[in-house]
Amino acid sequence: MTRFPAAHPGRPFGDDYSRGRMVPRPAGRARGVAAALTGAARAAEPDDDAYLRGLAPDLSPGAADEAVVRRREAVLSRLQDGWAHRGGQELDVVRNRHGADVFPVVGELLMAPATWEDVQDEARAAGLVRVPLEHPELEGRLVLLRAADARRARRLHGLVSALRSRGHAVSMSYVTPLGGRPIMKPNSGVFGPQVATFDEYVGGGEAHGRGVVVAVVDTGVAAERRSDGWLRDVVRTGDVAGAHGGASNVDPLDAEPHDGYLDVYAGHGTFVAGIVQQVAPGAEIRVLKAVGPGGAGSELDVACALIRAVRDGAHVVNLSLGTQTLFDEPSLPLAAALEVVREIEDERGWQSVLVASAGNYGDDTPTWPAAFGRVLAVGGLTRELRPTTWSSHGSWVDVSAVGEDVLSTYVPGRQNPDFAASAQEFGDDAFARWVGTSFAAPQVSGAIARTMTELRVGGPEAVHALLAAGKPVAGYGHALQILPGA
């Protein structure tokens, strides 16, 4: 098949997105405002990113200073509070055998229907009752069980372990966080996006991705349209609450809790969508909300959003989220969703490409959904295309892109000082820099869309072309230089 020139390994698009091409456009031609200021206070960008190279992945008290530990705990606490705000069961924080935080819903289990038939008497004896799944896309494919009383709710880990040892398809009911683990600067505990400015690249890029639909399953998109035109054509569906994630795709920004500050993961979906648009300006971007601005989203909600995106015709689906599990078991809801996706694809005769961030755990433990063979797993690299200390990696990672200080669209508001030593203010038409595999994945999603139009191929063929153009990096798949980072 047609491939990219091999003269520059790892750079399928040459220097199209390099800093040398990032120069102001004349007003009226630009989709964004050249050198647009991001807020009332224009903060200086970090002088260097050396702290990212040596960051201990577990952020334990012995490996990081007190500020980092305190802010990490604040992030986890806010994630729990955000989940409670959404009206769900209590959310637990448990360390798995790899030392990673995982987030099971207290007192809930999921089973395959065949497993339920085999173990229902045992489950009832353990105080579990079957409850409605309330996710129509997955009805008949999963069974949801809930502990009848609080005393038994926290005793389910042993039951899951025992049933799994006998070959049964059972798991805790997990919440899927964004990126899996926050990345912080040890000296100050800086977490989250940092104020930045953006000079647009030039060139004939408006057609890149034209006709390709890229769905972004995330926190939603900011309700207010920017005056500079970025994300102008992304449809907002209002803020109407509904089942399993709701009909709305609007990110409320300050809701978990409503305290006058940006929520801990506010703007994540807006940032991810902006990355896709930078790489493939002509693509149609559809944003689906499956995760709250506090960073918590049920794996059931994520699974159903994935199904809806594929059913509605997305050529590429970006999932900048993921979680490890207690027993390294694959997510049952996401596995069931992939079965539905395959049925949809068989019926219509073409395949969507599913892209997911590998996670920020810093080890080789599988993160779901990225570790599913059907999903393209994306790791995070330095701007020199070298491994980072914080990115998940391993044989299950297919491709990697720059994940350090990636620049994209952000939202107005003020950061909560609980999460930053020096809280920053973001104004209208904000841009920011952020770190994580969450921001490597949408570069690959955008690159697939661009490649589909450039080579006039389908999604799977575009993936093959990009992999062939990539530079092999052990544990990180094929490295691609797309956006430059900082």
TrEMBL record:
It comes from the Bacteria. Residues 1-20 are annotated as: Disordered. Keywords: Hydrolase, Protease, Serine protease. The active site is at D218, H268, S438. InterPro entries: Peptidase_S8/S53_dom, Peptidase_S8/S53_dom_sf, Peptidase_S8_Ser-AS, Peptidase_S8_subtilisin-like, Peptidase_S8_subtilisin-rel. Residues 209-467 form the Peptidase S8/S53 domain. This is Peptidase S8/S53 domain-containing protein. It comes from Cellulomonas shaoxiangyii. The lineage of its organism: Bacteria, Bacillati, Actinomycetota, Actinomycetes, Micrococcales.
